[in-house]
Amino acid sequence: VLVGGGLLTELPSLLQRYCPARRYVIITDSHVAGHYGERLRETLAGTLDIMLVKFPAGEWNKTRETWSMLTDRMLEAGVGRDGAVIALGGGVTGDVGGFVAATYHRGMPYVQVPTTLLAMIDSSVGGKTGVDTVTGQNLVGAFHQPRAVFADVDTLATLPRAQLVAGMAEALKHGAIADGRYFDTLLARRDALLALDRDALAEAVIRSVQIKAEVVAEDERETGRRAVLNFGHTIGHAVEAVGGYKIAHGEAVAIGMRAEAELGVRLGVTDASECARLASGLQAFGLPVSIPVDLPAARLVDAMRHDKKVRGGVVHVTLMRRVGETARGARGEWTSAVDETAINAALAASR
Ligand SMILES: NC(=O)c1ccc[n+]([C@@H]2O[C@H](COP(=O)([O-])OP(=O)(O)OC[C@H]3O[C@@H](n4cnc5c(N)ncnc54)[C@H](O)[C@@H]3O)[C@@H](O)[C@H]2O)c1
Ligand SMILES: [Zn+2]
User: Which atom of ligand 1 is nearest to 166's Cα?
Assistant: First the structure.
């Protein structure tokens, strides 16, 4: 994973070095094509055999239909096994572009060139690729590791602020689960980060990627430690689902982290002052921490039970001991089974 400013201009040599191929296919969405994709194609066309395929931006296009359209375009253009994919864009592009790479000719090499903060610190690292279905998100996919990730923080200049803040929620999560000092550094550098200071952004991306990569390296297929990355996501996903997906993912995760920290307090695992520290850090970045009043607890609990991570009808969550440290179960487990009474108490405390 390379992180820095101006990496896009170095892509011709970076590709040849880290992902040599006879032909490259840039997969990108309609927004990113206009900002960076078309220009990148021109830059690369000087030295490499290159084509660009795009799909309409938006989570609702992270589908098998988009996957078919992209793979058909590549088949028509005669892209062979000696080709490689460049997934240029946010997490949607990374997931669908990675899934194309995982399946085209039974798998071809690819690189991730993330252009959202979320994609840089989260979705581009770890090798999960896939698409959504009407039943739910990310239900059809594959594990397929990119050859390299090139995160050019200069591309964040055009990212809408709400998207930047959504990415910050995941960065703060990395601090909360693994590194309290990183959490504090993010807060100390808040103004620089929000003002898109190149060094501040690069440092944050690097630290977040280190944390995510370390967790994933230990548990690529998600049987154990990888679950800690879901901190805030069990209640967060329920908030998203019951809210009809009108609440942004990053905001829902912020609400979810606070609520899951409240759960830790109720279970005697988390100190109330650490829960407050987490909440005030999230709020400092303008993230919400209260469950909207129009989302009834009963529906949230119901949605949590339908989460694909639920085992045997019992909800398991990652609990934070303190900011920077995940609580472990008696046998070293990274998640704990929680009963409905505790969940309801935590939800009530998070209004
Ligand atoms: N694979 C994983 O491990 C993993 C982890 C977390 C999230 N995800 C997935 O990531 C997706 C969310 O990613 P996201 O938040 O990046 O969404 P996204 O890819 O939809 O990007 C958000 C919006 O910003 C636009 N955009 C992207 N880069 C831009 C730039 N530099 N300037 C201007 N506009 C830009 C996009 O066109 C889009 O409209 C979800 O589908 C989620 O499931 C995957
Ligand atoms: Zn998330």
Answer: 15
Q: Assess whether pLDDT exceeds 90 at residue 223.
A: no
Pick the catalytic residue from 54, 144, 212, 316. Answer: 212
For residues 320 and 305, give the distance between their C-alpha atoms in angstroms, rounded to a whole number. 21
pLDDT band at 136 (very low <50, low <70, confident <90, very high): confident
Q: Is 163:116 a contact under the CB 8 Å cutoff?
A: yes
Q: Tokens at residue 265, please?
A: 């307090």
Contact 28/54 with Cβ under 8 angstroms? yes
Query: Which amino acid does the sequence have at 160?
Result: P
SS3 244: coil
**Dist. CA 43 → ligand 2 center (Å):** 33
Active site residue 106: yes
Question: What whole-number distance in Å separates Cα of residue 278 and Cα of residue 173?
Answer: 9
| Phi and psi at residue 217, to the nearest 5° | -60, -30
The residue to mutate among 26, 27, 31, 122, having the most atoms of ligand 1 within 8 angstroms of its beta carbon, is: 31
Q: Which ligand is nearest to the CA of 66?
A: 1
Q: Name the average pLDDT for the chain.
A: 96
What is 187-233 written as a DSSP string?
Answer: HHTHHHHHTT-HHHHHHHHHHHHHHHHHHHHH-TTSSSGGGGGGTTH
The C-alpha atoms of residue 103 and residue 116 are separated, in whole angstroms, by: 24
Q: Which DSSP category does 311 fall into?
A: B
The candidate with the shortest Cα–Cα distance to 28, out of 113, 101, 106, is 113
Is residue 212 annotated as part of the catalytic site, yes or no? yes
Q: Are the CB atoms for 113 and 8 separated by under 8 Å?
A: yes
Q: Tens of pLDDT along 294-342? A: 999 999 999 999 876 677 778 999 999 999 999 998 888 999 999 999 9
Any residues with Cβ below 6 Å from ligand 1, and which? 29, 31-32, 35, 57, 59, 62, 89-93, 95, 115-116, 118-119, 122-123, 126, 128, 137-138, 155, 158-159, 163
